Amino acid sequence: MRGRIPPALCLAAALAALLPAACARRSQDLHCGACRALVDELEWEIAQVDPRKTIQMGSFRINPDGSQSVVEVPYARSEAHLTELLERVCEKMKEYGEKVDLSTHRKSYVRVISHDGTKMDLSGVKIDGDVASSLKFACESIAEEYEDELIEFFSHEADNVKDRLCSKRTDLCDHALHIPHDEL
After folding, report:
1. Per-residue confidence of the chain (184 residues) as pLDDT tens digits?
2. pTM of the predicted structure, to 2 decimals
3. Maximum separation of any 2 CA atoms in the chain, in Å
4. Taking phi first (over 0 means left), then psi (-120 to 50 degrees means alpha), and beta for anything else, what does residue 139 get?
């Protein structure tokens, strides 16, 4: 009996070995979901701006020849507008819930309140204050850490911003490269 390890100790050691991997995957799912939700919300907010609205950019100094180096750019994708959006967009994370894929046990985050008021299928979606606050915190961290990249991507119209930003540029969704787009 002296050399034998108690089963409870074996179970505890096995759980302790698996816990970091489970926490890491949960954290990766959370950060990936926050990045994807952040991109969705920024794209929606940009689309709501009147495309005719412009803002003056450049120097307001008068050049020696009497001209100014001021140009008008579309407001929706201006650095000023994008910076303003980044300051408040993570508040929208309270409108998201958590959905767990039963086959992979991966978590994704879906909007639970539609932008236009249409009914949404919320079957299997966990709507919880802890989920919303975790997602908001992750969103704020991403917005702060990747502010320059977000402004760079959104200052010009681009395709597949979610994949290019969340998977390729930041590696927040590196596992997502193998998941079809409609599941994300």
Report:
1. 555 666 555 444 444 444 344 444 558 999 999 999 999 999 999 999 999 999 888 767 777 887 777 778 889 999 999 999 999 999 999 999 999 998 988 999 999 999 888 888 888 899 989 999 999 999 999 999 999 999 999 998 878 889 889 998 888 997 644 444 444 4
2. 0.76
3. 96
4. alpha
| Residue type present at position 71 | V
Q: How far apart are CA 178 and CA 52, in angstroms?
A: 39
Residue 3 DSSP SS3:
coil
Q: Are 170 and 149 in contact (CB under 8 A)?
A: yes
Task: Please classify residue 63 by burial: count the beta carbons closer than 10 Å to its beta carbon, then call 0-12 exposed, 13-18 middle and 19+ buried.
Answer: exposed
Of 150, 179, 180, the C-alpha closest to 165 is 150
Measured CA distances, 166 to 46, 53, 112, 172, 181 (Å): 18, 29, 22, 5, 13
